[in-house]
Specification:
The protein has 373 residues and is of the alpha/beta class. It is built from twelve helices and twelve strands. Helix 4 (105-113) links the parallel strand 3 (96-100) and strand 4. Helix 1 runs antiparallel to helix 7 (242-253), helix 2 (41-61) packs parallel to helix 7 and helix 8 packs parallel to helix 12 (355-370).
Length: 373
């Protein structure tokens, strides 16, 4: 629930800050100000807080796996580093980078930038269900491949990609596997055993904005792309914020309180209102995270709908593309026309959404949409 009478249904753009995360941050914002990389007592105290947070994130993300967690400024930096750093390490002998057409722009733009450095980029198509074309993947991923990059749960349509299968395919030819787990961590099973690098973001798991992490399996460390003091294991430079780290750690530790049955209840209630044939679901109905409802109605003016439902925070697409004037590349990739893509809305819910507020909000959206006819 958002303040000022607004119902918040945009969990894919960002999640509310967990009370536990807020409380963990306060002392490091109010009472302590030492640099965690300083050698004096206060610096060591700050460093200890950072390391506690690192352990909390590791315990929630990759329990028991042999790897290291590096804090970053967010998932965008983590993905950039994983892709560019891995290509820097392997690109001379393995010039190919493989990804999927529905990936986040932080992946697609990064692999695109690598073409100037000699990368052979293959962007795999998806079917109308949003799932990767397995035949195309089998043809593309070979012993010339340095990296395969794929998103666990799509941020726009909620579809769950077969990361375990892709990771096994990558490993069979000696390529590294990067999983963008930003939208999937804490929501669906994360096949850590199939991954060499995992990018995550705090503010998608009820933590603060401005911090994320890259988990790296031992032996697959990407080359550094940020140079300076080498504060994160000599591979990532920059002063860490103990407050952000503490908030991230507490948020990660709180993930075990989430109840998947709550999401299923919300999904069922929303789908009963926004149902076929008037509302068409975008993406596969089964292989998806049910906290993401992306639907379209023919002829819908989404800008008008959002104006008429201004007390409900939902999305006309991914937050990253808002205001660009471009239709969603994800919706185009699953075969929608520009007109159909412009008829789509995304409703996201999670831990703090109540059934009552969701039903009321979705009924308002449905009435306003039908009122345009």
């Amino acid at each position: 629930m958002e303040g000022d009478g607004v119902t918040y249904l945009d969990y894919q753009a960002t999640t509310p800050l967990a009370p536990e995360a807020f409380e963990a941050m306060v002392p490091w914002l109010r009472d302590h100000h030492a640099n965690p990389h300083s050698p004096h007592r206060e610096g060591r105290r700050a460093k200890a807080a950072v390391e506690v947070a690192r352990d909390q994130v590791l315990a929630a993300l990759t329990p028991g796996a042999d790897g290291r967690l590096f804090f970053t400024s967010g998932a965008t930096e983590a993905a950039n580093w994983a892709i560019a750093g891995t290509f820097e390490r392997l690109g001379t002998s393995r010039p190919k980078v493989v990804t999927i057409a529905t990936e986040h722009s932080c992946v697609l733009d990064t692999v695109g930038a690598l073409t100037a450095r000699g990368a052979e980029v293959v962007v795999l198509p998806v079917g109308p269900d949003g799932l990767v074309d397995r035949g195309a993947a089998l043809a593309a991923i070979d012993d010339r491949t340095a990296l395969v990059a794929a998103m666990l749960v799509n941020n726009e349509i909620g579809v769950v990609q077969p990361i375990a299968w892709l990771g096994a395919l990558a490993r069979s030819v000696g390529a590294a596997m990067l999983c963008d787990a930003v939208q999937g961590w804490g929501r669906v099973a994360l096949p850590v055993a199939a991954c060499d690098l995992i990018a995550v973001s705090a503010h998608k798991v009820y933590g603060p904005k401005g911090i994320g992490a890259l988990w790296v399996r031992a032996g697959t460390e990407p080359a550094a792309i940020l140079h300076g003091g080498g504060q994160e294991g000599g591979l990532r430079s920059g002063t860490l914020s103990p407050a952000l780290c503490a908030g991230f750690g507490a948020a990660a530790a709180s993930l075990d309180q989430d109840d998947s049955s709550h999401i299923e209840t919300l999904w069922t209630a929303a789908r009963e209102i926004l149902s076929d044939p008037d509302w068409v679901l975008n993406g596969d109905a089964e292989a998806r995270w049910h906290g993401n409802l992306n639907v379209r109605m023919d002829g819908l003016d989404v800008a008008r709908l959002m104006s008429e439902c201004r007390d409900i925070a939902f999305s006309a697409g991914s937050a990253c593309a808002s205001g660009s004037g471009r239709t969603s590349h994800v919706l185009r990739a699953i075969g929608l026309s520009d007109a159909q893509a412009r008829n789509a809305v995304r409703i996201g819910f999670g831990r703090y959404t109540t059934k009552e507020e969701l039903v009321d909000a979705v009924q308002q959206i449905d009435r306003a949409a039908r009122g345009q006819r």
